[in-house]
Amino acid sequence: MANFSLYLIRHGIAAERGEAYPNDCDRPLTEEGRRKTRQVAKRLATLGLRFDLLLTSPLVRARQTAEIFTETVGYDCPLEVSQELAPEGDFDAWLNWWKAWQQSKTTSGDVALGLIGHEPDLSTWAEMLVWGDVRSVIVLKKAGVIGLAVPEPTSPVGSSILFLVIPPKLLI
Amino acid sequence: MANFSLYLIRHGIAAERGEAYPNDCDRPLTEEGRRKTRQVAKRLATLGLRFDLLLTSPLVRARQTAEIFTETVGYDCPLEVSQELAPEGDFDAWLNWWKAWQQSKTTSGDVALGLIGHEPDLSTWAEMLVWGDVRSVIVLKKAGVIGLAVPEPTSPVGSSILFLVIPPKLLI
């Protein structure tokens, strides 16, 4: 049986909403956001982290974050856009997807999924997986990462293990 | 009012129990344990972390870890031995100490306390502070660090915020 890890990654620093980007969905990463995200992705790759799949929110700032990860040496992995990762995303729908994905992995060894999305969704999803309910007690900075070990029971809700909560400055 | 941070730091890699160290309390850090602990302490200092006080378990491997922190540039802070941080430590007694210490800090600004101790105590204490009960869902590696923001209510139990869970390899 495989060992499943889940990495919840918040998009990097994005341009403010305003005349240039009246639509929140279109806000791109700033230069600083790109640079820091690249440094985080490189550092994690150097440490040996590999993703079997990256799922990203459809919003521009998340897709750009995901592309930086896939372009970084060591992250040569499939990238898929998931509507469930858009802001106010659908945790239950994602959970059904996850269970099916987990069951499709019949190999042993380490399997890692990366989710690129938004706050407060990602930290609340992490809380659901670890504790089974939400109290908004985890801080996830932009380009920060939460790492969970997810077992393979009927449901990972309330049965996952938290091994990583890291702001980008510790990876840069 | 000050902003209180609490860093729970597990001692570094220690010598195995055996003929040389029949008593668990006497096991010292190994060379690798010293080296990694020094790297973690240096990295955190470089990132600007300063402790106002370090409390350590009385066991040799914890005291040696604490001494490495105080010897590291930037951690020129008081170090006290606390019986409450020994294995199977007394969380309630420590909590009373913490409340008194918190109340004694009348300045504004950032105040940081470091605790050097053992597992599973440190991660369960973190869970108590963040979640109010213990489900053993946080992994704290040797020389790893958990960071909490602790508010100043009557009790920090179940009201602290988790901003850091980091294995040493990400700091080295």
What does this protein look like?
- Two copies of one chain form a homodimer.
- The relative contact order of chain A is 0.23.
- Chain A has helices at residues 31-46, 60-71, 91-104, 121-131, and strands spanning 2-10, 53-56, 79-81, 109-117, 145-150, 161-166.
- The first copy, chain A, is α/β, with parallel strands linked by helices.
- In chain A, strands 3-2-4-1-5-6 form a six-stranded mixed β-sheet, sandwiched between helices.
- Chain A is built from four helices and six strands, in the order E-H-E-H-E-H-E-H-E-E.
- Chain A is 31% helix and 22% strand.
- In chain A, helix 2 links the parallel strand 2 and strand 3 (79-81).
- The interface between A and B is medium-sized, with 20 and 20 residues.
Structure, briefly:
The structure is a homodimer of 172-residue chains. Chain A is α/β, with parallel strands linked by helices.
Q: What's the alpha carbon Rg of chain A, rounded to whole Å?
A: 15 Å
Secondary-structure element pattern of chain A, one letter each: EHEHEHEHEE
| Overall mean confidence score, pLDDT of chain A | 93
User: Percent of residues of chain A in helical segments?
Assistant: 25-40%
* Poorly predicted residue ranges of chain A: none
Structural class of chain A: alpha/beta
Main β-sheet, spatial strand arrangement of chain A: 3-2-4-1-5-6
N-to-C CA distance of chain A: 34 Å
Q: What's the quaternary structure here?
A: homodimer
> Count the helices of chain A. How many?
4
For the largest beta-sheet of chain A, the strand count, sense and barrel status come to: 6 strands, mixed
Strand content of chain A: 15-25%
